[in-house]
Structure formats: C-alpha cells, structure tokens
Amino acid sequence: MANFPRTHFVFVPLLGLALTALVSRGEIAYSRQVAMNFDPCYQREQDRHVRCLPSFINAAAGREVKVSSTCGDPPNRFCAQSSGNDGERERNCFICDASHPKRRHPSIYLTDSHDPNNLTCWQSESFQGADHNVSLTLSLGKKFELVYITLEFCHKRPDSMIIYKSQNYGKTWLPYHYFSSNCRETFGMAKDREITKANERQAFCTDPEDAALLGSKIGFSTIEGRPSAGEFDLNPVLQDWVTATDIKVVFTKIQGQGENDIDSAYYAVSDLAVGGRCKCNGHASRCIPGSAGDLVCDCKHNTDGPECDRCKPFHYDRPWARATSEDANECIPCNCNLHAKKCRFDVVLYELSGYKSGGVCLKCRHNTAGRFCQYCKQGFYRDSSKPITHKHACKPCECHVDGALGSVCNQTSGQCQCKEGVAGLICDRCDTGYQPSNKPVAPCVLDVGRPRKGHREDNDVCMPCQNTPLRELYCRSQFVMQGKVTARENDEGYVKFQVDVKRIYKSNSRRLRIRRREVQHVFVPLADLRCKCPKLRLGQRYLLMGRVDTSGPNARGARMVIDRNGFAGKWRRHKYERKLDMLRSVRC
Q1: What angle do CA 282, 284, 285 make, to 5 degrees?
Q2: Would you state the torsion angle of the CA atoms of residues 519, 523, 528, 531, taken in this order, to the nearest 10 degrees?
Q3: Among 272, 289, 367, 508, which one has the highest count of C-beta atoms within 10 angstroms of its own C-beta?
Q4: Are 383 and 375 in contact (CB under 8 A)?
Q5: How many CB atoms lie within 10 A of CB 458?
Q6: 196-231: pLDDT as tens digits
Q7: How many whole angstroms separate alpha carbon 78 and alpha carbon 268?
Q8: The pLDDT of residue 460 is above 50
Q9: Distance from first CA to last CA of the chain, Å, rounded?
C-alpha cells in the first residue's frame, strides 16, 4: 500500500467502519450529555468556558453529487478486465442502462453507505481516447474544516485529475491538489515540490501511484505535511486553507487507454469521502439545521453566525476571536448597568484599557449617560438610596424656578446653581444676610439692617476695602488668574465660588495646582463678601488675585482664598492684559 507524501493514512482501510462506529458512539454520547444537561463548551467544575468542536464526520455521506457525465442514457456497452479462475486476465462486457434498477450507475452511489462486499459504482459515459474531462461537484452545505478527501475507483484510476475547493458555495474555485503521472507535462508543475511555511497554502502535484491507498483508492490530506500543522489554532492562513463549502474533482486523463478501446474508456467511482468537522471556530459542539434548512453551528460562548464567527448582539466588550485549547475567547457583554440594550466595540478604548474592555453603550435609558450609562444625564442627579443599576437611580433636578439660574443641577449631589443671595439644595430660600424681595429676577436682597458697602463687619462696623496698586497685589498674591464665576454655595463661614479658569498668570504654590480650562473653587470669607470686599456675581468674568490657604479642609489642606486683602475685578482686556503680561516678567 502506498502512502501520501509525508503523511500516514493508516486509518483509511477501515474508514467506513471507523466512521460508522464514531457516529454511533457520538449519538449515544450526545444523548447522555443531553440527559445530564452537560455542555461540552463549559466546564462546571472550573466554572469557565472551554473550546468545543463538532464531531469528526464524513461530510459527503448521503449528499448529492453533481456529475458532468453518467452512463445509461441511452443504454451503452462497457467492458472491464477481471481475473479468471486460473489467474489469467479476462475481459467482461456489460450494459449500463439508467432505466434498469440493476444496471444503472447513478451519482447517488458516490456517497451512499459504502459496503465493501456489495460495491455500488457511479460510472461515466464511455469515450474515445485517454483525454476526456469529467467532473464531480459536491456541496457540503456550509463551511467545513477538511482533513482528507478520498476516492475509491471501480475501474482504472485516472492518470491525471485535479481537486478544487470553493469557499463561497461554488461562486469561485481554487485548486486544492493535482494528480498526474507526469506533473510537469500535464500541469507545468514539479512533482512532490517541498512544502514550506511560505507556500503551504498552495496546491501541489503528486503521482496517483504515490497517492494510492489500497490499490483502487486515491487520497489527499489537507494539513499533514504542512509545516504549521502543529500550531493550527494560531495560524489563520492554515485555518483558511482547510476551509471549504464545496469540493470539485475533475478527471482529465484515464490510465493506460488505447485509441480504439472505447468500451473500456470511462471513469467509475464507488465512494467519495470528505473527512472533516463542521467549521464553528471552537465555539460549538454540533451543527444543526437552520431556519432556512441549511446547516448552522449551535453556537455557545455568546457567539453568533453560521460559523460562530462573530459576537452576538450586546456582547462587544472585547473583539471576537477563535477559541483555542488555552482560551475559549468567549464574547463578553457590555457593562451598561442595565440601562442599555445596544452597544458597540471601540478598538481605541480597548487598547487604552490594556486590552480589557472596549464596549461603548448606545442609547442609555432611565435618564443615564456615559460610556457605561454610569452617571445621570443633564437635568438629573443620582439618588444615593438606589444602586446605579436601578431604573430610578436618577432623579430629575428640582431647581426652584425663581431662585435658580436654570434647571440643571449637580449630577452627583443635586445642588442647583442659585442666584445671588439664594441658598438651599434647590435654591428655595434666602442665604444668611439676605431677605426675600418678591421679585423673580432677584428673589433675595441684602437685609436693610446690614452694613453698607465698602466696610468690613466688626462690631457692626465695616472697615474700608483695600485700594492697593496692581503691581503690589500681583507680587504678594500666590495666584493670579482670569476666570468666569459659574456657581456658588455656602461652606462653613465661607462662600465657595465655582470658577471656569480661562488663563493663569501666576501660580507659585506647590500645594495646589491650577490648570487652565478646568473648574476650580475659590473661597471668600462670608463677612468680607457681605461688605463686598470683594464683590462677585455669577456669570461674570473676573481677574482674581489671592492666597493659598493650607489650613483648610479641602484639596488636601490647600484652597484658593480671596479676602479683603485680595482682588476681584471685572475683566477688562484693554485694562489688564498688557499690564499683566508686563508683570509676569517683573521680579517682585
């Protein structure tokens, strides 16, 4: 028995019996698995997903084969050589008749149950001469990963033949392997060319005599002898090489045929076998009929598609990948805190996360927002009594229509932005030192009994505000910046102003770092503010100069303070910008 070049097909003589036993054992094992609720794609003991593979089968068994020629219509005579009782060769002739049940040789005999003791053979029409093309085309119904293709002949083996494969259901064809007793003359190729990693996806040529398995059989191994066979899981080139949806065999020349021996010039095949697995990329243990009647993978690991070749919807937190013996590479659902039903994958975010998470939630519901629907959208704030996954985790802002600057509140605390003199979480009361005015534009005004402008409260007397030259103020201040006041709130004897920093002219404190285009907080003593030293209004832009207080409780013991010794003047570009640029170069 001859072997494949660089391969060992010792199992082929028992192929039919082995496959029958394998299928029987597989059916019994699968029934037991169903009964025990066992999932081959999941290890309960280790609580993890694992690679799973469909059973190895003869993918051609019982499938229709389209042939370009079949004898018997009209009936025709054919002859074959056989051994007589005394060992001499005898020529016996028969009739092929497609209408006679015992004399017909249709294509269904190519893939029927193969009984060596009762061979059934497909047979082509007889033809004149050795050169005559006849093709067999087999559709597998879906993508398979093939291991071998074998043909068993009832008559002479072909002198030359080609095996083709298609990966798109017969739309295009690629040569898989060539057979010829003279490869160079027939196909212009060298015989038994060395296979390397650079060419292992190419078709080569072999002598049919070298590829013979049991005299009448010829076989082709798709993967054995390929240098990357040992690392198949990690080699997409080889994975693509073994993938096929259709197989075509083209006989181009019959063996040892005379010009006038017409009755013996035909091809006859008893069995066409294609060994492989349904292609599921390691994410399914079986293939089942789909809704359209075609074969599809029964996908696990949160995968989807005919070959489990993509992640199922909402499982895009990391990219799809083929399962390996080391990692099932299951698809992971996006983390949207139960507030979204759709998400997408973002490769940039995935790389920035250290290849851990790339999902981005779409159309967050329940008034949430953010990549993970993890915070409340504008106009809502977090209800701290409920988890973020609760559908009522975000409550609408309840800002007072007169006391607040708008309907937007802090998304964490719910604090609304109050007008001057107004206080409270929803800006529904007057601040200390203010009284109601009954005017919606300015609902709270200073008490009439309060100290007048320009004085500091000290035993009911305000001291005059400082009137210091700009250069002196600049030199003694620890920070000088330009910013817009956007919010305010009381804070233990101080009023905390929220400032949107536009430009920084000076910052010499190591305890507090000020950044441009960031929101910073400036603290003003409440007593100084009542005397309008300084005077700050929401929505206005100011030049701010002050000190850094390292005894405060905020910002790790450091905060910006503007008191009566500081400065807060309405920003005038023509008045301040040139002077400040000059002061930055002055040595104080």
Answers
A1: 105
A2: 30
A3: 272
A4: no
A5: 11
A6: 888 888 999 998 887 666 568 899 999 888 888 888
A7: 11
A8: no
A9: 101
pLDDT reported for residue 587: 77
Q: Which of 417, 397, 407 lies closest to 537 in space, CA to CA?
A: 417
Say what the pLDDT of residue 165 is: 97
The structure tokens listed for 189 are: 């190729």
Least confident of 146-150, 307-311, 432-436: 432-436
Residue 305 token pair: 């598609």
- Bridge partners of 518, per DSSP, are none
Prediction pTM value: 0.64
**Overall residue count recorded for the chain in this entry:** 588
CB contact at 8 A, 235 and 241:
no
CA distance 510 to 558: 10
Structure tokens at 404: 């607040």
Side chain identity at residue 388, one-letter code:
I
- Considering only residues 260 and 163, tell me which one the structure prediction assigns the higher pLDDT: 163
Looking at residue 265, what is its pLDDT? 83
Neighbours of 555 (CB within 10 A): 16
DSSP label at residue 538 = T
pLDDT at 127 over 90: no
- Residue 532 phi/psi, 5° resolution? 60, 40
SS3 401: coil
Q: Are 178 and 162 in contact (CB under 8 A)?
A: yes
The owner of tokens 């021996």 is 261
Q: Which residues pair with 335 in a beta bridge?
A: none
